[in-house]
Amino acid sequence: MSTNQISKTTLAKLLATENINVEYRGTHTAAFNVESRTLVLPIWNDMTPEMHDLLIGHEVGHALDTPTEYGNKELQNYGKGFKTFLNVVEDARVERRIKNRYPGLKRQFSKGYQEFFNRDFFKIKGKNLAKMLLIDRINLHYKIGPFLSINFNEVETQFIRKIDEVENFDDVIAICKELYDYCKQELEENRKEQIEDFKQKLAEEEDFGDDEDHDEDDDYGDDDYGDDFEDLDGASGESHHENEENETDADENDDENGNGHSHGTSRFESDYSDSRQLKDYDEPKSITDENLEKSLRQMTEQKEILIGNAPNTSDWDYDSLIVNYKDLLGEVFDPCFREIDKNALTNFETRTKNAILYLVKEFELRKKAAEARRVVVSDTGVLDTNKLHTYKFNDDIFRKVGTVTAGKNHGIVIFVDWSGSMSDNLLPHASG
To answer: How many C-beta neighbours within 10 Å does residue 391 have?
Structure first.
């Protein structure tokens, strides 16, 4: 574990006010297991410190406020998209509470989400935010609202007020149910508008073709627009989801055939951009929540983890694998010792005896000289009977005493290289 991971682990435990388990794994996203109290963090690439602190603070907020039965019961009665509603509203609640509990995190959250916005983690670049479902606009409002201009009507503002004041998870579920029903109705209305807008633009295109004298005018009624009208008019009794599938099939057929419909689409391409954007919603859900999760997955470092089985050692013959140290000494070291001259020490002392004695004498002389410099002579106050007869012409008739301060002990430290590479040069170096 790196130093940065250790510091972030400590930060997570301090924020959670408990000794939670923090693990760095090769996972796609950060997550907190409310049952085992384990915070799992992926190994991110190109992650700024503010983004790291944001994600840690976010998951710790779930650790402190999100119950263990997070959405399990509610997901059974709604579609798969309902989980994204829970994510958006619960994220807004826990982030507000964690920032109120630790005001220092507000700056980290702001800088972290600004980095998410600059890197387009929510995939909103070039899209009309006003045509997004309310759940997506709420998600953007609470995460990157300071960097965008998002408008809400009076009904939608009431949802914002409720989310700002929600305190417990039961109220979160109630708000999500209302939001889901509202977005479901909003999606149906948007699809109706899409169909009516498509009919209107198609009629304008036909009128434009009738006003001009072109050879292809006779073919205009036989192209795929007529089929689209039949599909749209005949779908009044069917679900809006089927209408969307019919439109998608018609668009794909027109693009492949390269007919006049392709010409009309390029003419009104800007008018149909919002309609194509609506096709992202196959059901009420938060597209921006899914896009953020996908963007974070792309930043994780995926390392290949190799898993193997340890060999079974119960059948190993250890006697044939382990060599006794006595055998090793006898085979390897004994020949080396036999090659050494047993009289080497005696010959060394004989050859260096005079030099050693001279060094010892010099050492003693220097020792005595240093000792003499440390002698301090002082009077004792006791008469010296040997000097008493000189009292008439000598004032120094008292006994004297010399005090020698203790000297320092001397020693010699010798470092000997006993490595194998010195086996042939040890004696020359020692005697040199």
So the answer is: 11
The count of residues in the chain is 432
The overall pTM is greater than 0.70: no
- The SS3 assignment for 256 reads helix
Instruction: Concatenate the DSSP letters of all residues of 65-115 into one string.
Output: H--TTTTTTGGGSS-TTHHHHHHHHHHHHHHHHHHHH-TTHHHHHHHHHHH
351 contacts: CB under 8 Å, gap ≥ 6: 431
Residue 254 falls within a domain, yes or no? no
| Cα separation, 62 vs 72, whole angstroms | 15
The C-alpha atoms of residue 64 and residue 102 are separated, in whole angstroms, by 13
SS3 152: coil
The C-alpha atoms of residue 430 and residue 432 are separated, in whole angstroms, by 6
Write down the residue that tokens 């998600």 correspond to: 139
pLDDT digits (tens, 9 = 90+) for 21-69: 888 877 777 777 777 788 888 777 777 888 888 888 888 888 888 887 6
- Whether residues 79 and 185 share a domain: the answer is yes
In a domain, 38, yes or no: yes
Q: Same domain for 348 and 421?
A: no
Angle at 415 between CA 414 and CA 419, to 5 degrees: 145
